[in-house]
Amino acid sequence: MFKVLAKDGNAKRGEFTTVHGKIQTPVFMNVGTAAAIKGAVAAEDLKTIKTQVELSNTYHLHVRPGDKVVKKLGGLHKFMNWDRPILTDSGGFQVFSLAGLRKIKEEGVYFNSHVDGRKIFMGPEESMQIQSNLASTIAMAFDECPSSVASRQYIENSVARTTRWLERCKKEMNRLNGLEDTINKNQLLFGINQGGIYDDIRVEQAKAIADMDLDGYAVGGLAVGESHEEMYRIIEKVEPHLPKDKPIYLMGVGTPANILEAVERGVDFFDCVYPSRNGRHGHVYTNAGKLNLFNAKYETDSRPIEEGCECPACKYHSRAYIRHLLKAKEMLGMRLCVLHNLYFYNTMMEEIRDAIEAGNYAEYKAKKLEGFKENDKK
Known about the structure:
16 strands; eight-stranded parallel barrel; zinc; 2 domains; TIM Barrel; three-stranded antiparallel beta sheet
């Protein structure tokens, strides 16, 4: 399913074949938590901004509208009218983010819904069942994402449990993919490496899950409070122990600079809410760094967000107009900023793939990082 087409150092250019189409890697997955990109972005917009993979959230879709509702409507692809790959996370991150609303046990996690307070139980089998109902292309294994400041003993126990949960996930997915009423009988499973910032725990668990012959492998539990240097170190330690013929996914990361650094260390898949979240607040990415369009200096600026950009915002609108929309709290302003940011990320991933194929990734990365600093100098 995963074929490496070119390498430049540790950076690799690949192709991942799925039932919903081929994914060119490295790839940035655009985050649509509740089956929509926040910022009034529809599925038909995603192709315009070069989206390859859309990512949705298992926990949130289970809470509403309900995964069984989505299954009745033909699965997530039909529900949101998207015919390319979809990755669903497992609900495991909510074990971390909803710390005040949950209790973790060997069988799984007991939640109180953040919407209405009702009790929810989710374990490996339940997460796989929900994701099977959603019929995503790639399902993530159910895990716990421990806090980066948790004790070593806590993280050791948590990682051991996550590994046991992964075995249960694989068994349940195999069962679900064989059922007659399963929508996507070719659903893929990615396992998740955890271990906080402890190199030895990470490496030991990476070796254990590498033997499970999964469809892909994620490095989770990063970008949750540790430094960028610690994150890069963990990737360097873990990557050699994951299978070379399977994609590596760095979960929840990150800034354009984070992505450039992680690609150099062998990562293939990325996702992050930054481009859409920042866009909704008027912060837009350019090759000369990030701009805050609320800044008064853009009030009469007739230029596009970035000269030469082919996104829907830059092709038709000025910085001044988009700033006006944002100040007037018109939804169109937010939408245009989100479209631009996602287009910027997706275009950067194209450039990364081209640079790896050309064998000049180090030069490309250095030039890109230097460009990002230009607005800081002004």
